[in-house]
Write a structure and sequence with these properties.
126 residues; mainly alpha; Ribbon-helix-helix fold; two-stranded antiparallel sheet; 5 helices; 2 strands; 53% helix; elongated
Length: 126
């Protein structure tokens, strides 16, 4: 891929950093609107593909676990969207390995490489 193509891909990622995308899910047979950033939807779709689950099945499991925590007095009032964000990050953190970090270019003093923030630069105060 050319540098221009790489930059275009990164720019597309940065545009979706704060944009919420709404999807209708049916975790308990009833439609629920969930709004997540595109990168979370992509992560959720990847998890579903890897685990051979539908988004509805996965969301039902997350929702059931939220309900169990709530009955125990932990995490009252957590939205399904927030629970899905925590789940997606936790899933991929468990899958992260030193080899994977090295392939992604992490640990070289630039934590933003290979992330949606890669092409964004912060003006220095100098």
């Amino acid at each position: 891929m050319s540098n221009e193509g790489q930059r275009a891909g990164r720019n597309n990622q940065t545009r979706s950093v704060s944009s919420l995308v709404a999807r209708s899910l049916h975790p308990d047979g009833h439609a629920v609107q969930v709004r997540l950033e595109l990168s979370y939807w992509e992560g959720l779709d990847e998890i579903c593909r890897r685990e051979d689950l539908t988004p509805d099945e996965l969301c039902a499991d997350v929702q059931e676990r939220m309900n169990q925590q709530s009955r125990r007095g932990a995490q009252p009032g957590v939205s399904l969207a927030n629970a899905l964000r925590v789940f997606v990050v936790g899933y991929f953190r468990q899958a992260a390995t030193e080899r994977g970090h090295a392939r992604a270019g992490h640990g070289q003093g630039d934590p933003f490489v290979s992330t949606p923030f890669d092409s964004l630069s912060v003006a220095s105060d100098a």
